[in-house]
């Protein structure tokens, strides 16, 4: 076995360990029948909101991202969204440059395109020649990350890296170094073509977006008897 193969194996083992950690938060579910947000069906499910619920795990995973980008001096860690900001805090805390932690506010611009706005108070920290490390929890389309890169570059800053817990879009390419702890894009099916539906496996109605049109409530929580 050559070193390339060994490295690939090592990466696979590390990914499995990281996936196991995320699984322990309850954010990653397998061997079931889920309705996902696109309306498609899948055997696996990643619940974005649960992924940062265990502070010790988030710290450990944030630490791995920080170590990966440790050779790059970083002025700011930049995020958008609450989950990403919890992770970003852990990355910023563990990075040897002692970067500041900033977050941008998400919105929809023209034609429903994802836009991010940097609060004015953060302007002095993203300037010409400054370095930013972007942190995202779950990467699905990459539109938020692209908007963040644009924002930094428009202000004359440079994105030295993008770190993520889970990359669901394994075909994605950025022009900045990208690192995800887990790269996994599981298969999804149209309802009419879903092998689980064909086998008569009941759809999990406890988990998943707007099952039966009702808003998502109390998912992933266990009854406590109160
Ligand atoms: Zn199905």
Q: Bin the helical content.
A: 25-40%
Q: Number of helical runs?
A: 5
| Reported CATH architecture of one domain | 3-Layer(aba) Sandwich
Structural shape: globular
Rg measurement, Å: 19 Å
Name of the CATH first level of one domain: Alpha Beta
Bound molecules: zinc ion
Count of extended strands: 11
Q: Quaternary arrangement of the chains shown?
A: single chain
Record the strand order, biggest sheet: 7-6-5-8-9-10
Instruction: Indicate the low-confidence ranges by residue numbers.
Output: 212-226
Helix and strand content put the structural class at alpha/beta
- Please report the distance between the alpha carbons of the first and last residues: 57 Å
Strand content: 15-25%
Order of helices and strands: HEEEEHEHEEEHEEEH
Largest sheet at a glance? 6 strands, mixed
Structural notes for this entry:
The termini are far apart. The chain has a 6-stranded mixed beta sheet, with helices on both faces. A 3-stranded antiparallel beta sheet has the order 2-3-11, with no helix packed on it. A two-stranded antiparallel ribbon has the order 1-4. α2 crosses α3. It is α/β, with parallel strands linked by helices. It has helices spanning 3-24, 55-68, 82-94, 143-154, 195-198; strands at 28-29, 34-35, 41-42, 45-46, 76-80, 100-108, 114-117, 131-139, 158-167, 178-183, 188-189. The chain has a domain at 52-185: Rossmann fold. It is 29% helix and 23% strand. α3 (82-94) links the parallel β5 and β6 (100-108). The structure holds zinc ion (ZN). Zinc ion binds next to α5.
